[in-house]
Specification:
This protein is mainly alpha-helical. The protein has 6 helices and no strands.
């Protein structure tokens, strides 16, 4: 048997996953229990399949679908809740970024004092 024939006979068999299993895999990824790549290796499926499942079963999509069919009064409260959650997430991200900036500035100051090396770039200098 030649190399060509051996490659031609090797066929990847994909598993059929139940809807509950698909939702469970997407939930594991969203909870941070497993990475996307880890899920692909563990359950043996294509990355495109995973992205299709995430689009179909993600919590955000389900929330948006329920938002479409909710009553107008519920839509306002749900949209406010979503906005409040988003603002909280953005505030947390901003606080983390500010802490990172402070930490990096402190590291630069300590390095400049201890090593006596100018790390900061002076304004107006040529590149």
């Amino acid at each position: 048997m030649t190399l060509k024939n051996s490659k031609a006979k090797r066929v990847l068999k994909y598993k059929k996953f139940s809807e509950e299993m698909r939702k469970k895999i997407v939930q594991e990824i969203q909870d941070g229990l497993i990475s996307k790549r880890g899920a692909q290796k563990k359950y043996r499926f294509c990355h495109r399949t995973l992205y299709n499942w995430i689009n179909k079963y993600s919590l955000r999509r389900l929330a948006l679908e329920s938002y479409k069919y909710a009553s107008p009064v519920m839509q306002e409260s749900e949209s406010n809740k979503i906005l409040v959650d988003k603002v909280k997430d953005l505030e947390k991200a901003l606080n983390r970024a500010n802490l990172k900036v402070v930490a990096l500035q402190t590291i630069i100051e300590v390095a400049e004092k201890n090593l006596k090396i100018k790390i900061r770039k002076k304004a107006g200098s040529r590149q």
